[in-house]
Design goal:
324 residues; alpha+beta; Thrombin, subunit H; Pdz3 Domain; six-stranded antiparallel β-barrel; 7 helices
């Protein structure tokens, strides 16, 4: 038998079965999640169209998850369900730092999306995105989980951690829609596309979204802590690293200390290099952002710094950060 014949032979029964199994997984997941996916239309103060996005109902009483950048600054929101019925929506809470928001509608007989566990996903497993790209309602695209644990910077400047990378195609209007596994469980909230690239799209992990949504429903916002320094990443001299046995070769150079801030009260000065906070290594501004959570508000925490050739520890009491 020639190699040419082998290369053009018809698919075996096993190949056909495999294709059918894949199709069955995608169609089954899509049919389970589609009744929960909504189209969100944004209106400005004068009633003008301000864009649109996607979202999904995650409780039977009308709470909807979407992206902050979809609803931020909206004067009016209208939500269209898959059956075409429309309802006005109110913003329950908005967190630009994670690009997540919760809105709510009052409507009967709502179906809620099943939420999965983003910590259990693996690169290579099926990922299905459902949304309303470019105004085409209930569009399904499929791919795989390309990677997990990515980081992405929000418009606020903070870093969003544990972001899912997928090659399931996303387009403008997909923002806020669900990324689901083969069981139709939501594993992420679609949020961003790298425009020059192909097949590189991102979703906020659903475990992050569960935490944020709970806080937004309870408080209307996510609280974070603040110490009042402006800084920039800086390398540390090798002699300093070796002498003090530091775990990282970089730190955060303090370029400004706000008057009356916790940092000023703790005795921080311009030129100090922060290398640890609350016993955890600080090698970058993003490390410091990650550590300044709401749990640190009002807690006396040790902050380790290098001042010229000395290693000092200052106790700082973070305060609640004002929302942007």
């Amino acid at each position: 038998m020639s190699l040419a014949y082998l290369s053009t032979a018809a698919p075996t029964l096993a190949d056909s079965d495999l294709l059918d199994a894949y199709s069955h997984a995608v169609t089954g997941a899509a049919s389970r999640i589609m009744p929960t996916v909504v189209n969100i239309e944004v209106r400005g103060k004068r009633g003008e169209q301000g864009g649109s996005g996607s979202g999904f109902i995650f409780t039977p009483d009308g709470f909807i998850l979407t992206n902050s950048h979809v609803v931020n600054g909206a004067a009016r929101l209208d939500v269209a369900l898959p059956d075409g019925t429309r309802y006005p929506a109110t913003i329950v809470g908005d967190d630009p730092h994670t690009d997540l928001a919760v809105i709510r509608i009052s409507a009967p007989n709502l179906e809620a999306a099943p939420l999965g566990d983003s910590d259990s996903i693996l690169p290579g497993q099926i990922a299905i995105a459902v949304g309303n790209p470019l105004g085409f309602q209930c569009t399904v695209t499929a791919g795989v989980i390309s990677a997990r644990g990515r980081s992405m910077r929000a418009k606020s400047g903070r870093l969003i951690d544990d972001v899912i990378q997928t090659d399931a195609a996303l387009n403008p209007g997909n923002s806020g829609g669900p990324l689901v596994n083969s069981r139709g469980e939501v594993i992420g909230v679609n949020t961003a596309v790298i425009l020059p690239a192909q097949g590189i799209c991102f979703a906020i992990a659903i475990n992050t979204a569960k935490f944020v949504a709970g806080r937004l429903i309870r408080d209307g916002r996510i609280e974070r802590s603040y110490i009042g320094v402006a800084g920039q990443n800086t390398p540390l001299h090798r002699r300093i690293v070796r002498f003090f046995d530091l775990p990282a070769e970089n730190g955060v150079l303090v370029v400004d200390v706000e008057k009356g801030s916790p940092a000023e009260k703790a005795g921080l000065e311009m030129g100090d290099v922060i290398v640890a906070f609350s016993g955890k290594t600080v090698a970058s501004i993003d490390d410091l952002h990650r550590l300044l959570t709401d749990e640190e508000v009002g807690i006396d925490a040790p902050l380790t710094l290098i001042r010229r050739t000395e290693k000092l520890t200052k106790n700082v009491v973070p305060v609640r950060s004002e929302p942007r």
